[in-house]
Amino acid sequence: MMIISTMEPQVSNGPTSNTSNGPSSNNRNCPSPMQTGATTDDSKTNLIVNYLPQNMTQEEFRSLFGSIGEIESCKLVRDKITGQSLGYGFVNYID
C-alpha cells in the first residue's frame, strides 16, 4: 500500500517589513550599527541571528551574545505595534 500526502499552502497574515507595524528595535543597551558608524568592513564581526524566541528581551539578547565577546552594538528586531520580537537580531562585535 502506498500513502500519498498533499501539503496545503500556508497563508500568513503576519506583519512584513512593508507594513506600518513592521520591524523596529529596542536599543536601550545596544546602539544600532548605523549609530556606531558601521561599515562594510564590519562584515567579519557582524552577525545576523535568526530563530530567536519571541519573548526574548534586549537584555537577554545582549547577555547571551556578550558571553562570546565584547559587543560594539546589537539590535533585537521587534514589531512596532506589539513590541514582540520578530525572531531575529544583529550583533556587531568589537574587532
UniProtKB/TrEMBL annotation:
<dbReference type="GO" id="GO:0005737">
    <property type="term" value="C:cytoplasm"/>
</dbReference>
<dbReference type="GO" id="GO:0009967">
    <property type="term" value="P:positive regulation of signal transduction"/>
</dbReference>
<dbReference type="InterPro" id="IPR050886">
    <property type="entry name" value="RNA-binding_reg"/>
</dbReference>
<dbReference type="GO" id="GO:0008380">
    <property type="term" value="P:RNA splicing"/>
</dbReference>
<feature type="compositionally biased region" description="Polar residues">
    <location>
        <begin position="28"/>
        <end position="44"/>
    </location>
</feature>
<feature type="region of interest" description="Disordered">
    <location>
        <begin position="1"/>
        <end position="44"/>
    </location>
</feature>
<feature type="compositionally biased region" description="Low complexity">
    <location>
        <begin position="12"/>
        <end position="27"/>
    </location>
</feature>
<dbReference type="GO" id="GO:0010629">
    <property type="term" value="P:negative regulation of gene expression"/>
</dbReference>
<keyword id="KW-0507">mRNA processing</keyword>
<dbReference type="Pfam" id="PF00076">
    <property type="entry name" value="RRM_1"/>
</dbReference>
<keyword id="KW-0677">Repeat</keyword>
<keyword id="KW-0694">RNA-binding</keyword>
<dbReference type="InterPro" id="IPR035979">
    <property type="entry name" value="RBD_domain_sf"/>
</dbReference>
<feature type="domain" description="RRM">
    <location>
        <begin position="45"/>
        <end position="95"/>
    </location>
</feature>
<keyword id="KW-0508">mRNA splicing</keyword>
<protein>
    <submittedName>
        <fullName>ELAV like RNA binding protein 4</fullName>
    </submittedName>
</protein>
<dbReference type="InterPro" id="IPR000504">
    <property type="entry name" value="RRM_dom"/>
</dbReference>
<dbReference type="InterPro" id="IPR012677">
    <property type="entry name" value="Nucleotide-bd_a/b_plait_sf"/>
</dbReference>
<dbReference type="GO" id="GO:0003729">
    <property type="term" value="F:mRNA binding"/>
</dbReference>
